[in-house]
Structure formats: structure tokens, C-alpha cells
Automatic annotation (TrEMBL):
The chain crosses the membrane at residues 42-68, 117-133. One of its GO terms (cellular component) is Golgi membrane. It comes from the Eukaryota. This is Golgi apparatus membrane protein TVP23. Keywords: Golgi apparatus, Membrane, Transmembrane, Transmembrane helix. Its main location: Golgi. InterPro entries: TVP23-like. The keyword Mitochondrion does not apply. Golgi membrane protein involved in vesicular trafficking. It comes from Saponaria officinalis (Common soapwort). One of its GO terms (biological process) is vesicle-mediated transport. The keyword Nucleotidyltransferase does not apply. Belongs to the TVP23 family.
């Protein structure tokens, strides 16, 4: 083997190396519905406030879309995307007790980072946009 060939080999190897694969969403349907109701509630709230003068209709439809979003986050996307679960139980004394569960650290490390990022940032941004628009519409 010649010296030139030895010196070129690592560089050729680096040039032919493929870029590391990017991580896609593990659950694209869940991500879609997680964002769908948030966008629907925001879009209806903003657009209807521009074109409709009836506050009751705006409030009821926006509230309904936000309730659908809450149900999806609590029962579907929270569990699938980030491993959160919570529910309410009534104990023997008749008191309401909330139970919260999350994945352990080992399971959290195996979660898809894109799913987790989408879940948390869509929650934060939706609340921020609602707070920003409440002063204007």
C-alpha cells in the first residue's frame, strides 16, 4: 500500500460517511391531534373575534375546542408522548384524591425527543398566545 493511499483513506471515509439520521416523530398521528385542537381553538378565537360580534358563540365554541384539547392532552397525548397520567379517586372518607404518575428516568430517556419537545412547547406557546390575544380581541 502506498503512503498516498494510506493518507487518503481516512478522508475518503469521512466524505462517504452519511449524516446521522434525524429522529422523526414516533407517533405522528398523536402529535397531529395534539396540535390540531390547540390550533383550532386559537384560530377560531382570533378569527371569530374579528368577524363575529356575539361573545356567547365565541366563548362556547372556543371553550368546547379547549375542552377537546384538554381531553386529548390528558388521555391520549400526555400518556403516549411524554408518559404522564393522572386521575381522580374518591377515598373511603369521601374525599377527592388526585393521583399522578409519570415514567421513571430510564423510560424517560427512551422517549422520542421530538415528541416530548412538541408536547411541551405546544402547551407553552398556546397559553402564551391566548394570554397575548386576550388583551386585543
Amino acid at each position: 500500500m502506498s503512503i498516498r493511499k494510506i493518507l487518503r483513506t481516512p478522508f475518503l471515509h469521512l466524505r462517504s460517511r452519511k449524516a446521522p439520521p434525524t429522529e422523526n416523530y414516533a407517533n405522528p398521528n398523536t402529535c397531529f391531534f395534539h396540535v390540531l385542537f390547540k390550533r383550532a381553538a386559537l384560530a377560531f378565537y382570533i378569527l371569530s373575534a374579528l368577524f363575529v360580534d356575539n361573545f356567547v358563540i365565541i366563548f362556547v365554541v372556543t371553550f368546547f375546542l379547549a375542552a377537546l384539547d384538554f381531553w386529548v392532552v390528558k388521555n391520549v397525548s400526555g400518556r403516549i408522548l411524554v408518559g404522564l397520567r393522572w386521575w381522580n379517586e374518591i377515598d373511603d372518607m369521601g374525599k377527592s384524591v388526585w393521583k399522578f404518575e409519570s415514567l421513571n428516568q430510564e423510560s424517560l430517556a427512551r422517549l422520542n425527543k421530538n415528541n416530548s419537545w412538541l408536547f411541551w412547547w405546544s402547551l407553552y406557546l398556546t397559553v402564551s398566545i391566548f394570554n397575548f390575544t386576550r388583551n386585543y380581541f
